[in-house]
Design a protein that fits this description.
By secondary structure, this protein is mainly α. It is 60% helix and 9% strand.
Length: 141
């Protein structure tokens, strides 16, 4: 029964990881599009407020007017949307998939007795240490 549940967890986490990664890439593409499509503002008040670019767009029957400030605006609105859940969800679902696929049963994917006969605890510690060490190296670069 455990194998059956692990297979379902693996499948659901894999799809979750793919879907949230697509959302993250999609929002990144949207901001790349915005940055490449902005034009200098024509309105004198926008220039005075520190706007470096603007775009008029239509989507779904609504008109949108995003503007980009070169630096932080003088006053931030009370409701400010941060685009961070796309990346967090991708990381969290990927790490959960890593836990289910590799760390839950390390003897299946992490240990090859012909190469090195590790204990499951040692294989898990090595896998986690690998992630931490290379994250620190990446961060240092």
């Amino acid at each position: 029964m455990e194998t059956y549940l692990l297979d379902w967890a693996n499948l659901l986490l894999r799809w979750l990881h793919v879907i949230v990664a697509i959302a993250w890439i999609g929002s990144s593409f949207y901001f790349v599009f915005l940055d490449s499509s902005l034009t200098p503002p024509e309105d004198a008040q926008l220039k005075k407020d520190g706007v470096s670019g603007e775009l008029w767009a239509v989507h779904g029957g609504g008109f949108y007017h995003p503007v980009k400030f070169a630096v932080s605006p003088p006053k931030l609105p009370e409701h400010l949307h941060w685009f961070y859940w796309e990346s967090y969800s991708t990381w969290l679902s990927g790490f959960a998939l890593f836990l289910i696929s590799y760390l839950w049963s390390p003897s299946v994917y992490l240990i090859d007795p012909k190469v090195m006969d590790w204990s499951p605890a040692a294989a898990i510690a090595a896998a986690l240490a690998f992630l931490v060490v290379f994250w620190l190296l990446y961060d240092a670069i």
